[in-house]
Amino acid sequence: MARAPEFHIDLASFASDPYPDLARMRKEAQIAHVPELDAVLLTRRDDIHRHEKRVDVFSSDQPGGLMTVLMGQNMMRKDGEAHMRERRALFPTFSPRTVADHWKPKFEAAAARVLEEIRPRGRCDLVRDFAMPVSAEALKAITGLTSMTIEEMDGSSQGMIDGCANYSGDADVEARCHSATALIDDHIDRQLDSPPELSALAVQLEAGLPMESVRANVKLVISGGQNEPRDAIAGTAWALLDHPDQLELVRQGTATWQMAFSEYARLHSPIGMSPRRVARRDEINGIVLEPETRAFLMFSSAGRDEAHFDRVDAFDITRDTSAAVPFGAGPHFCAGAAASRCLISVVALPMLFDSLPGLRLAGNVRLFGWAFRGPVAVPVAWDA
Questions:
Q1: Residues with Cβ within 8 Å of residue 354, at least 6 apart in sequence
Q2: CATH number at residue 275
Q3: Would residue 295 count as lying in a domain?
Q4: With contact defined as beta carbons under 8 Å apart, do 166 and 66 qualify?
């Protein structure tokens, strides 16, 4: 028996491009210990798919974890019946039928308003000017926090995800996260007497969840429900514009917008990892994991696992992406997956390309992040 082999990383380089380090870990070790993150990393797809379900060992209950400390204990930081009770309470908001019948028209109206505003300009940053406001308007409706501005929604989401990835302990990052959660609590208080129908706030109150759970789960929805669609909308659009042959497949009907989004999420997983706490001593293929060890399930690495995908670094929307796990697996599979897919591949992407003739890239694109990853900006132009 042995401890997990040690792999050192440069944190700045890892944030800029984590994939070379992850490829090395996949090749050389089933489980890697990274001192700079004070965590063990599971990087192979089959290991992640299997062990995410072993909640008796890889527990989501993390009393000292960054998300719990900064945002409160939401349902993603609970296991078993405690998790399922809150998941069931939120189901009326996120069910496929609710998404199709209730949220999709609101998504379409929001996207149409944003496109109408930017169309005369002839150029924009897709992250800031299209994907951000479309995602924020969708999230205002879903959460029930309609009093928030789009800037507040995006800023509070960014503040929380930065805080949840703040494993270096940056005091300024932590302070911004606390400001973000305080802002959300203020808007929750404003909506308590009349939460919008089917919103996450309304259904949790109706289910009788304790207020600390209601608040924590609204923050959870915002932390993942803003940045992931924002980055995936802008990122998938960039990938298609950067690969015009792939875009033509969609326009011809040979491929779909959903296929493009799925391949982008495999290649550049917007949610790169999920943290776990080792709840009891365990051994995996001779590697011993001690209780209270921090473990990261690296969804981003799973999407480039050579055991399941060829040409792992290539963007190919015709490939089978079913082995990828960008929304997780097992009991903690993303509750908002149906809403996310609808917003990104049913509404935002087709409306974007249909509304802006001659849409094209107008500058370089840089992606950033490892726990959460997306384009910093996507400059584009079109025929106004």
A1: none
A2: 1.10.630.10
A3: yes
A4: yes
d(CA 9, CA 300): 16
The token duo for 293 is: 């060890």
Distance CA 324, CA 6 (A): 26
In a domain, 285, yes or no: yes
Residue-by-residue DSSP string for 310-362: SSTTS--TTS--TT--TT--GGGS-TTHHHHHIIIIIIIHHHHHHHSTT-EE-
- Report the distance separating Cα 132 and Cα 368, nearest Å: 16
Alpha carbons 261 and 131: distance in angstroms, whole number: 14
Q: Is residue 335 part of a domain?
A: yes
How many structural domains compose the chain?
1
Quick check: 30 and 284 in contact, CB under 8 A?
yes
Phi, psi of 294 (to 5 degrees): -80, 130
> Cα angle at 82 between 300 and 99, to 5 degrees?
60
- Tens-of-pLDDT digits for all 384 residues of the chain? 578 999 999 999 999 999 999 999 999 998 999 999 999 999 999 999 999 999 999 999 888 888 888 888 999 888 899 999 999 999 999 999 999 999 999 999 999 999 999 999 999 999 999 999 999 999 999 999 999 999 999 999 999 989 988 888 899 999 999 999 999 999 999 999 999 999 999 999 999 999 999 999 999 999 888 989 999 999 999 999 999 999 999 999 999 999 999 999 999 999 999 999 999 999 998 899 999 999 999 999 999 999 999 999 999 999 999 999 988 877 777 888 899 999 999 999 999 999 999 999 999 999 999 999 999 999 999 998
Instruction: Give the structural domain span for 211.
Output: 11-381
Say how far apart CA 44 and CA 313 lie, in whole Å. Answer: 15
How far is Cα 155 from Cα 157, in angstroms, rounded to an integer?
5
Query: Which of 365, 47, 325 lies closest to 237, judged by CA?
Result: 365
Q: β-strand 123-125 against 58-59: which pairing, if any?
A: unpaired
Domain assignment present for residue 310? The answer is yes
